[in-house]
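step 4 of 6: structure.
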Amino acid sequence: MKILCCISHVPDTTARIQFTADGKALDRTGITFIINPYDDFALARAAELKEKNPNGVKVTVLAVGKNGAQSTDSVDANLRKALALGLDEAVRIDAEPVDAFFVAHQIAAYAKDKGFDLILFGKESIDYNGAQVPGMVAALLNLPFVSYATSIEIQDGQAHLTREITGGKERLSCALPLVLSAQKGLAEWRIPNVRGIMQAKTKPFQVVPPVSVAPRVRTLRHEPPPPKGTFKKIDPENIQELVQELANKGLI
Amino acid sequence: MSAVAVWVEISEGRLKKPTLEVLTAARQWADSENLPVVAIALGADFPPNLTASLGEYGADRVIRLKGPQLEPLVNSAYARALAQLMRERQFSYLLLPQTYDGRAIAPFVAVWADGALLSGITQPPQREGSTLRARRIAYSNKAIEWIATDHLPVIATLKSNSIVPAKNPRVPTEEELAYTPLPEDLRLKSVGIEKVATDKVPLTEAEIVVSAGRGLKGPENWGMIEELAKALGAATACSKPVADVGWRPHHEHVGQTGIQISPNLYIAIGISGAIQHLAGVASSKNIVVINNDPEAPFFKVADYGIVGDAFQVVPQLTEAIRKYKEQHAH
Ligand SMILES: Cc1cc2nc3c(=O)[nH]c(=O)nc-3n(C[C@H](O)[C@H](O)[C@H](O)COP(=O)(O)OP(=O)(O)OC[C@H]3O[C@@H](n4cnc5c(N)ncnc54)[C@H](O)[C@@H]3O)c2cc1C
């Protein structure tokens, strides 16, 4: 079984976010970039499947991106981190991920004739929460797509899955190949061990040039969220005041 | 006919709030460009008053695509039907709710209708010449991003709770077409659906959310949280560590790695306000923080703050709300 696991490169969850003077791009100085936390669920599930069947499963990790100027902004380093979970090979498509349409085309072009049985993503990336790329890749490859997947088991080329839906969950089955986006629950996050980290250094690592695709959506600018004034302090002895405030705003 | 088309999400025979929000946004968008709103519903069966309800929220035309195989929903089947309709009728725009299924369908339509995708926008896009501009939230509520496209058609998803549903009544024309999904869209088979706690408001749709964290000390103390939620007609949520140790079910976990919500009122009880928690809730319209530590970071994003012991404050608040509601009941 061949698995492709796609990861994105995002600012650390605690990073202070600032932009370039024109507001168009993130100011990357001093920011540590991490593997998108949802992609970590997908990586962990891929690692589990690999562990269960080391000779029968091959996992490729892929990212679209260019390495930044600083060592904390290295797509390659994050790909190596993923490899350290026990996965087989890494591919970086050497282009700025301008928009989802562009990224999806890069991934689809790479995956098209490689016969992957399973293409895994996180449910969304924590920078723009777009949740666009996985569905677009499925559409471009005309493959079934399970979003918000919380479990997957594979038996004889047949996948049995659970996904989150509004107010509940749905159980599904589907013959491979398919595309999946991971929600929390798909697997427990893993931390690479020293052996994994050592082995990752010598695993196959390919840098691939992008295919030519015109992006469709551009960023005009970023701005800070509307400022919050100071909050109104309510005396715990005078809860009635809060109820009145909420009522005045029509909230209760 | 150019139009703002809308995918109408029907759940248990009802139009859910995100769909009413999408209709409202579509109406504003259509008016700004002098276009009609076309509401498109897919399913095996439709509620009898569907057309009338859609008309109430501003739909000029209702198209029902009907087929026994359209339920349960398969994202690619719906997307293929929507994309085909967009191409045939030359709709310029399609707006979907940013729900579980809306988010899965939209990227397929964008590819198959050869469109540009604007995801998670918070208000109707605005046209300036050949450019369409839209606003969305980025970097876990730490920024607003303005995006633009010069491409047509445009497929967009609207973030839930970004706008208030507003009626704009009219009598729509209607049309019903049969639709049979392609075999390739039936590869994914639904084996069963399980709904949880149906008596409660789903978290993503709730107007009021009462949320609690590790400050509550243990699962046995959630009774007072449930009581407050009941008094307010609210949904309940929790912080990540609370779900991780099993004090509360995982589907209540909000934040960067949980569910993202923006209710009208979020009440945070015994939650410190870590950046990853705020990432999922900071766009709530009103935030009340109850915490015994005056330095808790959550106060920085609060509208109202009570520095005090949750075990005393919460029961009092519940009581005060009950009393208020009794006095103001008709
Ligand atoms: C990659 C990553 C992703 C994460 N994703 C999420 C996420 O999605 N959601 C999330 O919530 N967290 C997430 N976290 C965890 C987050 O960093 C915090 O650890 C977590 O939110 C803390 O939960 P808490 O506020 O309930 O607990 P604590 O931080 O322990 O805070 C408890 C609070 O309760 C108060 N308190 C104590 N006793 C009382 C009392 N009697 N009355 C009133 N107040 C009291 C305390 O003053 C304190 O402020 C993530 C972390 C990482 C690294």
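step 5 of 6: annotate
 - The pocket of flavin-adenine dinucleotide is lined by residues A 13, 37; B 213-215, 239-242, 255-258, 270-272, 274, 276-277, 280, 290-293, 296, 309-311 (CB under 6 Å).
 - Chain A has one domain: 2-224.
step 6 of 6: archive
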